[in-house]
Write a structure and sequence with these properties.
heterodimer; A: 415 residues; alpha/beta; Fumarate Reductase Iron-sulfur Protein, Chain B, domain 2; four-stranded parallel β-sheet; 22 helices; 7% strand; B: 411 residues; FAD/NAD(P)-binding domain; Rossmann fold; 2 domains; five-stranded parallel β-sheet; 9 helices; 18 strands; 25% helix
């Protein structure tokens, strides 16, 4: 992979990225992706301090890279430049903490019965705001007492050799931190759905994808986790076992960020990237034979689907829409927002919250205007964020597919 | 739900041609996957539809047939009509006709004829009545009213050049882009205080030209409110990119295409025909480069709408070879690189003529004049037979050839 900085010279200054950037649209503190990216890159010398800190307003949503018609890796340039700032100035305790959702989940999970009610208290959030600078209004997920791995022991394998059935039916599930610590129910449902479709889902050894560390500029710690994942997951890819995830930002890290942003190289990373799929991408492009039209029950619902910015960076379109549009009676309205604003951990930070909230405005207005029965989005951080801001119940599109297959009751609608 | 007899289509490129073709095909019930490496170039466009096609053969100097001659005048008429229907349904408000022209003002003060233009860009008759002015906006460096008033070629007396009009509230912390201003104009609260601020500054003026920044989707309302509050006639003048009129056109087309059921894959580079394809005369869809790796998108028919030499559809090298960038279709071009450009910077040049030769079914031909691939079609800026820079029917070519291609592909 080309180091992102070397793509700066491809910039034609056409401003397509500037016109599409959701952060530049929300605040004039951010000069825009072209200005802090390919343009400012000329002033960044490896041996000299970063000339300007305005790139730190970039949320890392990746829109700029996706819309660039000339191959400039704008977002990647900016994420690397942000990490340089962290190297020079250090990361606050807050960023060290929120970039390790797996530690937080493992530490606080056993005390969920105490931690969750406390964290719902205004005084607790004010204290977190004062001490850690986590914005009191930023929605946060609830901890769960039991993890997915604890509840799905029979699916756990150490290597492809542990799989008894034919490799054609095996699927390796990358649950990420969210399904492991915060939404184990979603993970269990996904395993059930894959089994229902005739596959044998297994859970390989894995750790947090490292994306939150990367977004907070802690590249060395992120690389350590990336290497651990590559060591344990690459053998599955090599054995022809697809690695499937429901968290679109984790799967993007496996596919793209390890190589293109963290600069990791080697066959393990290439094979893991090529063998990793978003779950709907898997159902559309890898195994289109699994879903049969007669098995899909009608769902008379109007839903608004927001493809997370990080799903869009997979460059696979919106495969969830391709699947959901096959469900009789279901009307899918597409979100017109490039990003919901939170961009992982960006919106949690006190200084960034107002900007992230501004980015969310257009999507919240569309939800208000469409009045859907349900709002769907794949990424957990988008769901937590939008549920907190809108008061709606947010669901993963896989829950709607599972409902149409008769695996679960219809998720609850608007409040 | 696509009908059982409808083909699966892949369209490559999301500029005017690709978005319009995708919309047409999906609206007729085809399953369409639109693949776009980056966002299409409409944000670089003035947003007008130039479609003056010289019907007399002698006025077309190119040796190869003109794309509209191949697509047919009926396709031009039908394509323009379809686009206008789409735009009026979207509330974007275009005016004009194929048989006549309307005029917009260039940022340099010239009159520019076109066939269909956003109503807000058309020069009002009041402009030459003496109490007209052109103004920029403070903090916006991409428009200079003096360029238009000093270089005036619009006939009559040049309008007055006003000082840049201020924006209410704190000054911006960076240079504003046209898109920033457009979003600010759409805020009802800001618009009210802006009117109070501007009213004394434009007193006595009947007709005011300002940069084209009056909102990204809600500009018809914004313009009407400004006109009634300020008591004058307003019109917009195109600016440097990002061009708001171009973005309005893109938004309307994109919304219509997605609402018709088009699957848009943005960011993926199209690499070529499907692998393992023994039948060399078929593309069978396209391979694309995604974040994880190469994926195959199979299709019954594939439309190339990837643009001309300035837009990514053609690949050139330093040795002077020119080839179609995705499937490697041959390109009508000068083999010697020195012949690509003429002596004067402003042209004419040879390179804007380069393009793929197609038949009257919009199918690329090989060097021998045979079909390059049975299931491959091409439309828009990629086509040979016209100087893309100097033509008076650039968007007309895009619409006519897209219309014709989809007509044939769905037949």
């Amino acid at each position: 992979m080309i180091p992102p900085g070397l793509t700066a010279d491809l910039c034609l200054k056409c401003n397509i990225c500037t016109a599409s950037c959701p952060v530049a649209a929300a605040t004039d503190l951010f000069p825009g992706p072209k200005a802090v990216g390919p343009q400012a890159e000329r002033f960044r010398h490896p041996k000299l301090p970063s000339p300007d800190a305005s790139v730190s307003w970039c949320s890392g949503c990746g829109t700029c890279t996706r819309v660039c018609p000339h191959g400039v890796n704008v977002a990647e340039i900016n994420i690397v430049a942000k990490a340089r700032l962290v190297q020079e100035h250090g990361a606050p305790l807050r960023d060290q903490a929120i970039s390790r959702p797996h530690w937080l989940g493992a530490l606080a999970g056993p005390f969920a019965a105490i931690a969750n009610p406390v964290l719902r208290q205004r005084w607790a959030r004010r204290a977190m705001g004062a001490v850690l600078r986590i914005h009191p209004d930023a929605p946060m997920p609830a901890f769960q007492r039991r993890t997915l791995r604890g509840r799905a022991k029979r699916h756990r394998v150490r290597s492809p050799r542990d799989i008894s059935t034919s490799p054609e039916t095996a699927v390796a599930f990358f649950h990420g931190c969210s399904a492991e610590y915060y939404e184990p129910g979603l993970g269990l449902l996904t395993l059930r759905l894959l089994e229902h479709l005739g596959l044998q889902p297994v859970i390989p050894p894995q750790t947090c994808c490292g994306l939150p560390l990367q977004s907070n500029g802690l590249f060395d710690a992120a690389r350590a986790q990336a290497r651990r994942n590559a060591r344990s997951l690459a053998p599955f890819a090599r054995a022809g076992i697809p690695i499937v995830g429901t968290s679109t930002s984790c799967t993007l890290a496996l596919k793209h960020d390890y190589r293109a942003i963290l600069g990791l190289e080697g066959p393990d990373f290439d094979e893991m990237a090529a063998g990793t799929y978003d779950i709907f991408e898997f159902l559309v492009y890898v195994r289109p034979d699994l879903l049969h039209q007669p098995d899909l029950r009608a769902l008379p619902l109007r839903v608004l689907y927001h493809p997370p910015c990080q799903l869009r960076s997979h460059f696979i379109g919106t495969p969830a829409v391709q699947i959901l549009s096959r469900i009789p009676g279901l009307e899918v309205v597409l979100s017109e927002a490039e990003c919901c604003g939170v961009a992982g951990t960006y919106g949690l930070k006190s200084e960034k919250f107002p900007v992230a909230r501004g980015v969310a405005d257009s999507l919240l207005a569309q939800i208000e205007q469409v009045q859907p029965d349900l709002v769907l989005t794949d990424s957990e951080t988008c769901r937590w964020w939008l549920a907190g801001l809108s008061g709606d119940r947010l669901v993963h599109p896989i829950e709607v597919l599972a409902a149409s297959l008769g695996l679960v009751a219809l998720p609850g609608g608007r409040n | 739900m696509p009908g059982p007899t409808m083909p699966d289509l892949v369209v490559i490129g999301a500029g005017l041609t690709g978005l319009f073709a995708s919309y047409l095909a999906a609206a007729k019930g085809a399953r369409v996957t639109l693949i776009s490496f980056g966002r299409g170039g409409l944000s670089l466009s003035h947003g007008c539809i130039d479609a003056r096609y010289p019907t007399a053969a002698r006025s077309i100097p190119e040796a190869l047939p003109h794309p509209i001659a191949l697509a047919g005048a009926d396709a031009l008429r039908a394509g323009c009509a379809q686009l206008n229907n789409l735009l009026s349904a979207a509330g974007v408000g275009y005016v004009g006709s194929l048989d006549d022209s309307v005029e917009t003002l260039t940022p340099l003060g010239g009159r520019r004829p076109t066939q269909f233009a956003p109503e807000s860009l058309v020069i009002p008759t009041q402009l030459l009545d003496g109490r007209a002015a052109i103004a920029g906006i403070l903090g916006f460096r991409d428009f200079m009213p003096a360029l238009a008033t000093r270089g005036w070629q619009g006939g009559g007396t040049a309008p007055a050049c006003l000082d840049d009009l201020p924006w209410p509230g704190a000054p911006p912390r960076r240079d504003l882009y046209a898109t920033d201003l457009a979003r600010r104009f759409e805020s009802r609260q800001q618009l009210a205080s802006l009117c109070d601020l501007w009213r004394p500054l434009v007193a006595g003026i009947d007709c005011l030209g300002i940069p084209a920044v009056l909102g990204l989707t809600d500009h018809v309302r914004v313009k009407a409110e400004l006109e009634s509050s300020l008591g004058l006639r307003l019109f917009e003048i195109p600016t440097l990119p990002p061009s708001v009129p171009g973005l309005r056109l893109e938004t309307a087309l994109r919304r219509a295409a997605l609402a018709a059921g088009v699957t848009l894959i943005e960011g993926a580079r199209a690499l070529g025909r499907l692998e393992g394809n023994r039948a060399k005369r078929r593309a069978l869809g396209v391979r694309v480069e995604t974040a994880g790796g190469t994926r195959a998108i199979s299709a019954d028919k594939t439309l190339l709408a990837s643009g001309g030499i300035l837009n990514g559809g053609l690949h050139t090298d330093h040795a002077g070879s020119v080839i179609e960038a995705t499937f490697g279709a041959p390109v009508a071009a000068h083999a010697t690189r020195a012949a690509w450009v003429g002596p004067a910077l402003s042209g004419p040049h040879e390179y804007p003529h380069f393009g793929v030769r197609v038949n009257d079914r919009m199918q690329p031909l090989d060097a021998a004049g045979e079909l390059f691939a049975e299931d491959l079609y091409a439309a828009g800026g990629l086509l040979a037979g016209v100087d893309r820079v100097r033509t008076t029917c650039r968007q007309g070519i895009d619409l006519a050839t897209a219309y014709r291609a989809i007509e044939v592909m769905l037949a």
